[in-house]
């Protein structure tokens, strides 16, 4: 048996004012997207904003459905919309935030496993790191410089190509 270790890297900011201007702008776009989410069941409105090459911003938000598995998370809505509209542009960064009807969210909102898998594939396809910026409604911000820290064992097409 051989023990191996994975080291995860991320950056912690006390608030969004410490981010670069372009990352602050992207996070603000995610906040705006969250306000428009369709979340009548969970009342947990998630917003995402994707920055593509050339500074193009594409927003997405969660879209719930009474048949719960039929809804889509904000991250996937934004990424799928971005690729459908700009198929030749690489994804540079995504910002994720949320609004709750029950309380003020002051902890960063992290993507679910399905969204992490989709994000990992977009990073792999683009060949550049996908920066992930996470915040609640307010408070601290976590930034992962790539998907390696959020999904170290991603399932990518390279695996399928072998078989």
How would you describe this protein?
With 163 residues, this protein is an alpha+beta fold. It has one domain (11-161): Cytidine Deaminase, domain 2 (3-Layer(aba) Sandwich), CATH 3.40.140.10. It is 28% helix and 22% strand. The protein has helices at residues 21-35, 74-85, 113-126, 157-161; strands at 11-13, 44-52, 57-61, 91-100, 131-135, 141-144. A six-stranded mixed sheet has the order 1-6-5-4-2-3. A hairpin with a 4-residue loop joins strand 2 and strand 3. It is globular. The protein starts with 10 loop residues before the first strand and ends with a helix. The model has no long low-confidence stretch (mean pLDDT 96).
Low-confidence runs: none
Provide the domain count. 1
What would you say the CATH architecture is?
A: 3-Layer(aba) Sandwich
User: What is the CATH domain class?
Assistant: Alpha Beta
Average residue pLDDT: 96
> What's the helix count?
4
Sheet with the most strands: spatial strand order: 1-6-5-4-2-3
Please tally the β strands and state the result: 6
Q: What order do the SSEs take from the amino end to the carboxyl end, as H and E? A: EHEEHEHEEH
For the termini, the CA-CA separation is: 26 Å
Radius of gyration: 16 Å
CATH superfamily: Cytidine Deaminase, domain 2
Major beta sheet summary: 6 strands, mixed
Instruction: Report strand %.
Output: 15-25%
